[in-house]
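Take one record.
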Amino acid sequence: MARTRKQVQTAAQHPTPTPTTGQATPEERTRPQLHPRDWQYARAVPIQNRLQTEAQRAAVVDELRAICEGDLSSVWIDIVKDWFLFCAGVEVNPISHLETFVEILALRVGGDEDAALRLLEHEQAVVLAELRAEGKHVPIVSGLPDGDGESDEESDMPSGEDVRQDVAENLSTSAKNSFIHMAMSSRVSHIFAGVLQSHAEWWCDLCGSWASRFKKFLFSNKEYVADDHLAAIDALRGIRAVPDTVGKTANWRKAVKFGSLARVFELVCSPAAHLLVQPHSLTSFRLNAWTVSLSERWHAWTDYGDLDAIELPAAVPDGTKTDPVIAQDFVKALCDYPNIIPSACDPLSVLFLTTEDAFMRAWNTWLKRSLLKCGATDALTWHPRTLYRLLMGMSEKNFTKVCWEDFPAELQTILTESWEFCNMRLDQAAYAHHPAGASEPLAGATGEIAEEGSSSKRVWVSRRSREEMDDLEGVAVTWADEEDRLPPKGIHGARASTTYMTPEELGLREIKPDLQIIARCKRHIVKIMDNDTKSCVGGIRYNLLHPETLQGIKDSHEKASANPSVQRGMLLRAWQYGKMVPFGFRVPQGGRAGDGYTTYGTTRVENIDDMKMIFSVACDTECIVQALRASDPPSFHKLRDVTRDAQMHRIGTTGPTAFYCVNYLSCQHLDTETACSMSCQLGLDTEYSDEYDFAYTEYGVVFRTVENCGWWFDASKVHGSVMPRLSTVNKGAKRRMSTGIHITIRKKDMEKSAYLSSVLDLHDARCAIWKRRM
């Protein structure tokens, strides 16, 4: 239960005695401790050391609550939750304890460590009393490091064996119910697994408890209840913690069956699940990836050995009807059942009409099944590819069964934006191949070697050795004089020493725009060719976009970049200048209970503006992809093929993640991408022309970046920014010095998408196997 600010402040001065019930429990024997990162948290956004007055602290709490309630995957939820776990040895609902968190930060910053400890003791006592009153057992002791990695600090925290011994002692006297309602976290998953293996008699009741939590939150509750949501997430954590040594046994499968958990899996993992659950749970479907998360575990527990002996439901073939009336019938069904499109739980589903590939993927996964679930059985007769082409050839005036004015606003937006997307795609493809006013067609578009003086040139290079590149990771490349070099920063702390090198010291060849070629051909393309493989490994195109297209992308960039930045990897956290706002699907870096290929928090559809933002991102991405298609067809084909093969969620023709960047910097590093990455410089306002250039170090070149240029490269090779000078950053601290878009497909996203697609394809087989077993 959350305390008011007044109660929290009073507790800091007058601690409540720890309640006792006879013999002290292990939790009561654990003394609170202060967190070593409190000063870093106090400096971070949105706190920013605004802790001196009560009004400031109240404002900070309100801002943190808005962040956490607006996005359950917010990093602040994880910080506050782990902070309480470290300091007090208890797991709490972080949103309900923000006042305590902020008050203790204020006390520590103010130098009153004793008061901070008193407040922690009070909070620990109250939380433990509440947990015991609810019959919950929390087998966690304080002293655990903040985060899953190793701590750099010495600690006298108890060993894992001591923790297991304490838990075993408690379990020997605790009821089965205490284990079933055990608060789950990654830190106790191994303890949970050990107890689970030794108490098979509890399995059925445990599965029944999990099933009831899902039923209550997803199906029974008419209104959103936060505690029930957290209980369902806790059940998901428990399901993921079941080891294969348990999950693949016949007795566990029986427990899943008799505990009704298999029936819950069948419903929640259905392609039409968004039509079965309560509307308030759809956002949770997006955040926690319920369908793919539970499908993955159900798949792991399923015995496919007797699949050949089971009569599977026959695959329903696509219809053959191609009469134009099928488009009218389809649109009428969408008007009658507007919830067919699962935009709340799968935001990119609104793009299902942007390309034929996207439509067919939707048709074969959720669209046809959802139509049938709603009673639109005529869908069985429709030829889907013809249906798509008919829809794309229509306009507002062509609909007869339902007037355009009577369409739901969401459907009007999807159709209008999809038509505009298709027109834009054709226009941009034409411009990319032959810009207006160009004196020649695009040389090199069909693979021939361009002549000297043409719009497309090739630079032959040799890839540098792996040993040399290993030494360059983390290096800051800059043209700045020593006294004007930009220092690293970031709440995670800069390394004690940073190596700076100039492009000249690295022997990088400069690639610059040729204004004469641009004046004659309206573009200038330079391809980087590998001497060994004889293939193109990257390149840059100057005058990438039509001026009107460029301005349109700048407008959408301004809206998109107002969202929170993505969390950077460990190597890049020392260079947290600027921001990088993501859109699309990806494998979570951590924090969410959902284990799947899920959306970034920015990618959501809660209103029409959100929907239009996603279409804007799709258009921006498609413009860049079409320019790549004209400049380097093999790289485009690989992007498209990876998207198709892995069944990735599409943003236009391909399935990348898009990042909107403002003043973004990176030291030399490499990523694990599966196809070429591409960046587009939308705007540049610097003191020197060589700032914010792109160093493609592993291939020995540096691209001079200017407004309206775009470059593609293999991100698994060492690359990074050419850092601006310190004087430039100081002058432009509040302005957009560099703006751009970066699109990429990460290897882990591709692999996870491919795996989950294969898992989801087996849904009908799993249902048949478990029905036979049941």
Remarks:
- Residues 674 and 747 are 5 Å apart (CA to CA).
- The domain at 456-755 is CATH 3.60.130.30 (Double-stranded beta-helix).
- The chain is about 45% helix and 10% strand.
- The first strand starts at residue 456 and ends at 461.
